[in-house]
Design brief:
Elements (H helix, E strand, L loop, with lengths): L1 H7 L5 E8 L2 H11 L3 E8 L2 E10 L8 E6 L13 E8 L5 H10 L8 E3 L2 E7 L5 E5 L23 E9 L3 H10 L3 E6 L2 E5 L8 E6 L13 E8 L2 H13 L8 E2 L3 E7 L5 E9 L24 H7 L6
């Protein structure tokens, strides 16, 4: 019981990752049809209610499975992955399923890199329709998470949730210090200029690779790039304790923000990547049943009075 309590008071790996897309329908089709993940919430950007905010994940939107997008349509330029950004997203897939995904990539006419291996794990890399870099990884440790499945992407191939995220920075020391001294990660291994950090507080979505690139070019946050990485904590009490720890380490951090489905804090780590601390509570089933997740447009309370106008502005989405 004591060990469980200690684990619950730590950062529990990745909560979600948020990226920027262009066309909403194209984004929806790629992730729900090709990749076979579930849309668990269709809502709007808190700061720009004329833009959707899509959440994709497993059956219930378990933290560690959630990839979210702001599809800004024609308003967004193409971005560029680079220094100061989360540059790659890794999904965990079942052992032996890489051949299925190679064939599926060909079927959907999606260019991909040859099979590769890092830290003893095989993976395949490709881009979504906006250029976001994705890796499908067969992890060395068994991943027992239950997948959301479709008629075409079944349990023996479906993504389990996140495997890892890659952060690219000019100099790794400050980023590493946040991961180890504040978040409780440990350096597991190094391959060239890539450092793998892992937390033992949870067994999945628990890997952060830091790529040090002193001569790299700063990324441009726009279409096809990641906006921020959210790390997971059990509840608001743990979150606020962590906030004090971050402040004590000399980092600026926001007050707690209610995002309807979790509570958030934001700060930039020394390498320039925007980090979020997000709670497990209250989850995505607070305003829809599990069976109905992602089927209705859910608005933050402050925008509900303007629903009719917002629905007219948002592009139609065929689900």
């Amino acid at each position: 019981m004591r060990k469980k309590a200690v684990m619950e008071n730590k950062v529990l790996g990745i909560h979600h990752i948020t990226a920027i897309a262009s066309d909403a329908q194209c984004n929806y089709d790629f992730y729900t049809q090709f990749l076979g993940v579930r849309m668990v919430k269709k809502t709007v950007n808190f700061d720009d209610p004329g833009t959707y905010h899509f959440y994709y994940g497993d059956t219930i939107g378990t933290p560690g499975s959630i990839l979210t997008f702001f599809p800004w349509g024609d308003r967004v330029h193409k971005g560029k992955a680079g220094i100061g950004m989360a540059t790659e997203i890794g999904y965990s897939i079942p052992k032996g399923s890489l051949a299925f995904w190679e064939e599926r990539l060909k079927e959907f006419n999606i260019t991909h890199q040859p099979l590769n291996e890092k830290f003893g794990e095989q993976f395949i890399q490709f881009n979504d329709r906006d250029g976001l870099i994705l890796n499908l990884v067969e992890p060395s440790a068994a991943d027992e998470r239950k997948s959301w499945t479709t008629e075409e992407v079944k349990e023996n191939a479906a993504t389990k949730g996140f495997h890892s995220v890659v952060l690219t920075v000019k100099e790794s020391e400050g980023t590493a210090k946040v991961l180890t001294d504040i978040f409780g990660y440990k350096l597991l291994s190094q391959e060239g200029n890539r450092y793998r950090f892992v937390t033992d507080a949870i067994g999945t979505a628990n890997i952060v690779d830091v790529v040090e690139d002193p001569n790299g070019v700063h990324g441009i946050t726009a279409g096809g790039t990641n906006h921020h990485v959210a790390f997971r904590v059990k509840n608001e009490e743990v979150q606020m304790n962590l906030r004090e720890k971050i402040l004590s380490a000399g980092h600026n951090i926001t007050p707690k923000i209610d995002r309807n489905y979790f509570y958030s804090l934001y700060f930039r780590e020394p390498g320039g990547v925007l980090f979020e601390i997000a709670t497990d509570n209250p989850g995505f089933a607070v305003d829809e049943t599990v069976d109905e997740l992602g089927t209705h447009l859910k608005l933050p309370p402050q925008y509900e009075a303007n629903r009719e106008r917002i629905e007219q502005i948002l592009p139609a989405l065929k689900q």
